[in-house]
Amino acid sequence: MERIAEDIHRIISENRGYGFEFIISDWKTEFFRFFNSESNYNISRSSFTVSGTIEKDKRKYDFKLSNPSGSDIEDCIESAKSILDKLPPDPDFHSFENNPDIFQYDALHDSTSEILLEKKIEILTKIAEKVKSRNFDIYGTFAAIKRDCRIINSAGIDKHFYQSPVMLDVKAVSNKNMATVIENFGGNSLDTFDLNLFISNLEKKIGFAGLDIIDMPQGEYEVILSPHSVGEFASFLMYCAYAQTLDEGTSFFEGKTGQKIFPSGFTLSSDPVNPRVITFPYNEDGHIAGKVDIIKDGVFKNFVVDHYYGHKLGLEKNGAVGVDAIAIEKGSCSLDDMISGIENGLFISNIHYMNFINMKDTSVTGLTRDGTFLIRNGRIVSMVNNLRFTERLSSIFANTVDIENKLYPVTVSSNYFDFKFSSRLVPHIKAGNFNISSSTHTI
User: Fold this and answer.
1) Which end of the chain is more exposed for a tag (fewer CB within 10 A), N or C?
2) DSSP SS3 for 326
């Protein structure tokens, strides 16, 4: 990486008439899978890439190279120069990120080397043995990554972006009726992992999954949303707060800055430096990351603003990283009290295959998954077949009546460009008038 970085600095200095941005990425993934309570496969994958942007006269050209040498990058740039003049200019282009602030790392660690295969098998075997007595098997993934990057541009940025988080995702499946429940752990390292607590939480969900299975009719219900569900709804709501959606005319929050639109106890932040979530030292531009309140005590405060849209829309760019580090402030109610206050409602454990119907009004549709339960007279009494819902995210959070006094880090993975993890630090919430549109009649 150091040699390529030196080549890039030389290329920038020798091409003063052009603007450049480069991301050098050395990425390693260790991915172990458990299937039907047995080891399935273990994959180790490494990649070294250089992504670049070359700009002149508001025309820009992007490229990405795998395992390049300095001469490969130079050849690509020469080809890009011949293409630039043929491209349409972007009148809103405004150089590259120039924030000089440097993130101060603690001692760096490498989860891909620290969490050996034997350790993963040992942990998953203990979980499998516990659920086997309940006639369940587990399907799980245990993964770690090492993401070592340099962000270099012609505005003077040269920053080190480093992460090495870990994620354990377990789904327990009933051999009796194929009912499923899930448990998840993730963070910057395995240091805070409590195996006994993990198993205890999973066993409690398995107990509920052993109840009789019923169908529920369409209608509006009072619901308890699990941290997995809350995190998914919050991430879709966060997309509506990106400055890009404001520019495209699809943002629900357009014209609402400073307005109270949710209950006073509801605060949603992008918090990439919270010790309980996976740290993001910088956004993808190289701007130093930091906590940014998107909604504070029910009032919309800030968009997620990067360098480009900050310039284009006249907004102050900030350290928000959006859906990569979501945090909701805890409330004052225990989960038991939230459940005990419901006469006839639902506990929703997870959300599957959710999509926007209309981002502007936050309407979405999706399915419940991995444990939906009927609450009657303050107790969970039945498991419910998976349900389809059609709702507005704004209504879900506007109808929030209680927020749990405890937060849970829920880690998710994505693989659109490179395999990465991100966190959501969220509570259970209780909301009214949640619209169930139909039953799938399947578990």
Assistant:
1) N
2) strand
198 with 330, same domain: the answer is no
pLDDT per position as a tens digit, 382-393: 999 999 999 999
Domain that holds residue 115: 2-209
DSSP 3-state of 396: helix
Pick out the chain residues at pLDDT < 50. Answer: none
Which of these three, 163, 184, 209, is where a domain ends?
A: 209
Q: Which DSSP letter does residue 270 get?
A: E
The answer to whether residues 185 and 226 belong to one domain is: no
- What three-state secondary structure class fits 142? strand
pLDDT tens per residue across span 244-293:
999 999 999 999 999 999 999 999 999 999 999 999 999 999 999 999 99
Decide: 127 and 199 in contact? Cβ < 8 Å: yes
Same domain for 333 and 250? yes
Please write the tens of the pLDDT for every residue from 55-97.
999 999 999 999 999 999 999 999 999 999 999 999 999 999 9
Residues 6 or more apart whose CB falls under 8 angstroms from that of 248 comprise: none
Q: Please give the Cα distance from 375 to 403 (Å, whole number).
A: 18
Q: Which amino acid is at 346?
A: L
Residues 205, 218: one domain? Answer: no
pTM of whole model > 0.90? yes
